[in-house]
Every structure is written in C-alpha cells, then in structure tokens.
Amino acid sequence: MWNRCLLGVLVPVALVAFMALACTSDEGAATDPAASGVATPTKELDGRGDSTTAQIVDLRPLGTSDDRRIVDDLGREVLLRGANLNSLGEYWQGDPDHPPTAPATDADWEEMARRGFSVVRLIINWSRVEPERGRIDQAYLDDVDAYVTAAGDQGIYTVIDMHQDAYSAFIATEDAAECGGDPTARPGKGWDGAPEWATITDDLSTCVTGDRNSAPAVIAAWNHFYDDTDGIRQRFVASWAAIAERFAGRAEVAGYDLINEPEVSRPAAALQPLYEGLLAETIDAIRSAEDGAPFAHLIFVEPAVPAGDPTLGPIIPDPAAAGVETIGIVAAPHNYAESIDTLGLTIEETFDLFLGVSEGLGVATWIGEYGFWDTSDETLAKVHRYAAAEDTHALGGAWWQWRQVCGDPHHVTWGEPVEGEVVHLNVVGCPTDVDLGPNEAFLSVLGRAYPRATPGRITDLVSDPDTGELTVEAAGAPVGVEVVVWTPTGSDTHAVSTAGLESLTEHGVDGGRIVIATTVAPDWRLEIAPAE
Predict the structure, then answer these.
(1) How far apart are alpha carbons 358 and 527 in whole angstroms?
(2) Which has the closest alpha carbon to 247: 62, 68, 24?
(3) Can you list the alpha helix ranges (DSSP code H) found in 304-426?
(4) Of 410, 145, 369, which is closest to residue 257 (Cα–Cα)?
(5) Does a cis peptide bond (omega within 30 degrees of 0) precede residue 401?
(6) Which residue among 106, 332, 395, 512 is least packed, with the fewest CB closer than 10 Å?
(7) What is the spatial distance between Cα 117 and Cα 399, in angstroms, rounded to a whole number?
(8) Contact (Cβ atoms closer than 8 angstroms) between residue 9 and residue 345
(9) Over the stretch 225-266, which tens digit does the pLDDT of each residue have?
(10) C-alpha–C-alpha distance, residues 284 and 487, integer Å
(11) Angle, helix 7-17 to helix 347-361, in steps of 10 degrees
C-alpha cells in the first residue's frame, strides 16, 4: 500500500491515457420535472424489515456509456460503493503465530449489506490461482466463487482484483545481516502476488532502500515478468482466462481489475510497449473466454507507476499501439490524497485531476482504493470531505479496507507483530487479533444514503451522513424506469419527497431502506429529510 504516495499524481494521467470509450446511451432530452410533493409510499416501514437487499435489488450486467459512466443493461447509472476485502489473498506471513488474513464470515457480509454496500473489491492472487505452473487451482476458484455468491446474496457486486504488492509473497529477507553492508538498507518484507515458480530474482538482494518495490530482487522479478522469461507472463494471461471462463455471464461480478499497482521496473519509454502488450493480451484472453456469454464484464485498468524509483517515469499506455477494443474498460485510480503523502494535492484537487483528464478522453472512472487509518477529529474531517467530493462527482469506490489482521504485512514490522489497534472499517486489537467491531466513525460516512441505480445522468448528489439527508437529481432519463436508492434512515424519522417520479415504495432492510420509484419525466428529483 505504501507506494501509493505517487498514485495521486501519476495514476490519473497514466490510466486515462490508455482508455477511450464507445457505447450508446439511452438518455432522452431534458424537460421540466413534474410538480414536487411528498409521495405516499405503498408501505410504511421503519428500516428494520425482514427483507434483504438482494430480494429487492437486481444485480444487472454492467457496462459503460458514451458519457463516462458505469451503467447497467437498462442504461441506469450505477454507483459501486463499498470496500476492499483481502480474505482470499496469499500474503507473506512474517510472524508464524499470526496469519496475514482472516476469512469473511456470514456476519461480515450481513454487516456490509447493513451499511448499504453495493460492491466489494475482492483481492485474489496469481499465486493461489496457479500455484504450480500450468495447474489452475479450481478449489481456489471455488473459494472465489463462494465469496462472489455470498456478496451477491446480499445484493453486492464483486470486482475481482488480481492483487500484488512488491511482486510476490516469495521475495523477503530471511536474515537481517544480509542488509548490513549498506547503511541505507533494511530487511525487505514479503508481500503478495506472483507464485514462487514465476518469481525470478537472479538471486539479487531482497533488502530495500526506500519503497517496498526498491529491492533489486523485486525489480528483477518485474523485469522477467514483463519480458515473459520462461513464458511466465503468458501463464498470468492464462490464469485470467480461467477466471473469466469461470465467471462468464455472472451479473453479480461487476468486472475484473487486471493487476493492482504494477511497477515500472525500467525506464518508462522502454517498458511501455511491453506493458501495453500485457494489457492487450490479458483483455483479449478475457474476452475470448467470455465469448458466447450474454454480456462482457467491465475491465478495470491501472497504470504502471515507478514506486521503487520515481525517476523512471510512469507508463502511459497507448490504446492504438496496444490494439485494444476499449468498450467496457474503466479507469480505476487510487485516491490516497491527504491519507498518504500525495505531493501536496488535496482530496478535491485529486478528484478534479482524475475527472478533468477523464472528461477530455471520454472515460468512466472508479476509485479502486482510498482510505484513512485513524479516527482523530482531523482525519474524520477529511473522511467527510472525501465523501462530499465523491458525491459531487457522482463516483463510486472501494475503501481500503474492510478488515486487516495483526499478521498482515502492512502492519508487521520485519519479524515482529504489530501492537495496539489496527483501524480500518473494522477495528482489530493486536497482537492477539481481538475483534473490536465495526468502526462506526468510518462506516457511518461510507454507509450514507446514495442512489444505487439512476435513470438518466446524475446532475446533483448531496448526502449528509450526520443528518441522513439526501438530495439526488438527474436529467435525460427515459420514462418508466426505476430509481433505486439506499438510505440508512427509517420512515419513522425521515420522509421521502419526489418530483418527476411516481409509484414510490420503501422496503425496510436491516440497517435502513431501499427506496424505489419510477420516472414519469426525463428530469427528476428525490429528497430524504427528517420528518416534520
């Protein structure tokens, strides 16, 4: 995670330059909305109903529109909001008494739904997909399938993320004395990613002098991967094909994040054609595996960033050079402004940078990672600002992350477990992995009201996590299409008013309500406010 200090500046430029978008929109011409008024729901519910979100909300196939939005097959704008989940990752275990991950439980999935999640970014690793060369571990894909199903059973999409950090869990310093010759060097922790058989380090040093990607062994491994030494890159592509074949036609899978935070391991100009080739081969393999399915999944693409050596420069992929069909490809930058050093950019400036570049190229944007890790007043003010900026731009994203346990390499000091509390969306007490429960300070903001599915284009979205108030307006909607809104409030405390909508229904679910209404005008508005 720590190489992300560079992503706030470099990610949007590199990501968006790779993508162009071509699709049609179902939007109609804007007209005046119908007269406003407080609509009468067909059910009076208190937000504690017996229904589940999945019983009310359909997870429909997703695609991209020609005006830079993620949309479903009805043309509705879909906001994917939730968290990263690392339970199925294979991370380096620096302390034999503390595993680096913990399985997600039924209670976890239920809590995500109770907080209004519409997505999880599910971390998987190549090392578990293909632990031995040429053997796809179908039992592991069964595990992935079970998580996808568990999320879907709660009305939650899954973005399957082929995660890596510092290339592999199999590059780590075994003896601190190995780093003694260089006063700037320190032992390198292992991380996650490639299988051991695809980790070629030339026996170089695992010691780091800066970012976790700075170890010579890590740089060598990346170079061998890009160069397809012994065909290892082709096996990575084949692993993605196996995943895509398994989940072809599964609407509860939003799409595939091809590779998390790939490293620039040589000067960008030299690496660029190799990285473009990797992306093209992987996308082609996924599309071939999906051939014959009723729809193609979204592809989320990240740039290569020089975290280990910033002087190498970022990769800016060229779609023409890559020869990639770009329909259904989404830019997925990580916005760690003001939580990890981002060279001085604010949260708002980083969003503006992402969207400014995206607008010029016509690409959809989704924030694959963001997050904060303490609940001080200063940090909570940033969390609220992030939420407000996310709403201003009508964006989705995945918080880093749902839970991290004491043995996670993000926390383990080389050879020692972490002490104290690990603060994410759930809080864990270390070193004994005590579950201290959901982090209400964060989850109350992440779980604020928002439209899950919006006919037309969102023109105004304001959601106050403190008061439960929501205003959402849209333009250019076809008539007769359902709006789907999540709110953590109950009808006993908060009323719904609408303009340009009819047939309002409120469905009580654990933690809040799903509000559904049907458009009767191209322009419409829905408001939720404290009842008088």
Answers:
(1) 29
(2) 62
(3) 319-322, 347-361, 377-392
(4) 369
(5) yes
(6) 106
(7) 11
(8) yes
(9) 999 999 999 999 999 999 999 999 999 999 999 999 999 999
(10) 39
(11) 10
pLDDT of residue 133: 98
Tokens matching residue 432: 């004994």
Mean pLDDT of the chain: 88
In 231-318, alpha helices (H): 232-247, 268-289
Q: By the 8 A CB rule, do 72 and 78 touch?
A: yes
Q: How far apart are CA 219 and CA 309, in angstroms?
A: 10
Cβ-contact 24, 66 below 8 angstroms: yes
Q: If 0-12 CB within 10 Å is exposed, 13-18 middle and 19+ buried, where does residue 441 land?
A: middle
Strand partners, 453: 78, 484
Return the percentage of the chain with pLDDT > 90, whole number.
76
In Å, how far from its chain's centre is CA 347?
Answer: 17
pLDDT > 70 fraction of the chain, expressed in percent and rounded: 88
| Other CB atoms within 10 A of residue 431 CB | 17
Distances from the Cα of 190 to the Cαs of 40, 174, 194, 206, in angstroms? Answer: 58, 10, 11, 9
**pLDDT at position 360, please?**
63
Nearest to 117 by CA among 75, 64, 149, 158: 158
Using CA atoms, how far residue 513 sits from 50, 112, 289, 481, 508, in Å, is 11, 14, 38, 19, 5
Tell me what pLDDT residue 48 has. Answer: 43
Q: Could you write out the DSSP letters of every residue in 6-70?
A: GHHHHHHHHHHHT-------------PPPPPEE---SS---S--SB-HHHH-----EEE-TTS-E
Q: Is residue 2 pLDDT above 70, yes or no?
A: no
**Residue holding tokens 């490809």?**
329
In DSSP notation, 211-245 reads SGGGSHHHHHHHHHHHTTGGGHHHHHHHHHHHHHH
Residues whose CB falls within 8 Å of the CB of residue 435, separated by 6 or more in sequence, listed in order: 426, 428, 429
Beta bridge pairs of residue 334:
369
- Per DSSP, 176 falls in state G
pLDDT of residue 31: 27
First to last CA, the chain: 46
- Distances, alpha carbon 479 to alpha carbons 457, 468, 483, in Å: 13, 28, 11
Burial class of 433 by CB neighbour count within 10 A (0 to 12, 13 to 18, 19+): middle
d(CA 297, CA 313): 31
Residue range 25-33: average pLDDT?
A: 29
Residue of higher predicted confidence among 109 and 21: 109
